[in-house]
Every structure is written in structure tokens, then in C-alpha cells.
Fold this protein.
Amino acid sequence: MTTYHDVPADLLIAELATRLQDMDQVSPPEWADYVKTGSHRERPPVQDDWWYVRSAAVLRKVGLMGPIGANHMAQQFGGPKDRGVKQNRAVSGSRKIARTILQQLSACELIDSKHNLAGTVNLGKILTGSGQSILDDAAHAIRGSAEERYPGLSGF
């Protein structure tokens, strides 16, 4: 069975974004048309479905890096800030976007919180069984097109 580790991220994220559009809990808030994705950006995104693409990328990153929280997730989507004549510095992406997407994915029961042994500290978000299932199903669905685009994948 093909897992999400076996296929390229660009194809997987595109397939996941179409699957997340069918879920009612994952939807862009009303402010999503006007907000920038970080202080390093000059304008809001121009794609109509950018919220679903970002949600798919967040779901994949939770699977790869989990347990992970909203702050670390925002750092993953950051970039260089143009400071004029001074050198660029790395800044985080929007924590509000990361937190809202994590909350929506939790409402879909694709991710869940991981706590310490005492149950008092939240260590971050991890994949649930259904989250693992949707990632692996999407990876299996795009395996053929991934092998056509990247011939080296067929040996695995």
C-alpha cells in the first residue's frame, strides 16, 4: 500500500485539497479573502482555493512532523521579510491561519491533541486513524500519475 511518504508533496497536496473541499468543517472564514499569510507577504493570496491547499499542507505536515503546535506550524509557512536596505530576516507565517486550520482539522477528527502522561500539558497535534487513512488513500490515488511524472518512483 502506498503511503504519503512515498509520493511527491505537490501531487499529494493537490489531491488532499480536493478531498478537503468536500468536508463541511473545513471552509475558509469570511476574513480569508483579505488576510495576508504572513508579515513577509505584500498581498493576500490570489488563488481561490488557497485555504484548502494550506489545510492539505498542514495535514501533511502534522503527519510528518507531529506532534506539532500552531506556533511551530506557523514557522513552517514563514519566509524572508524584506527590510529595505538591511538584510532579510526570517519571520513566521500567520499564527491565526495555522491555529484556525488546526481547529478545523480537529473538528473533522483528522487530527487530535497529544498530552503528556499526566494529561496536563498539550504537546501538539498528531494524526488520528481517519487522518492517516485520508492521507494514504490520496497517496494511493495519485501513485500512477506520480510514477508518470517521476519515473524513479516506480522502483519502490
Remarks:
- The chain has one domain: 9-155.
- The mean pLDDT is 92.
- The CA atoms of residues 24 and 108 lie 8 Å apart.
- The first strand starts at residue 79 and ends at 81.
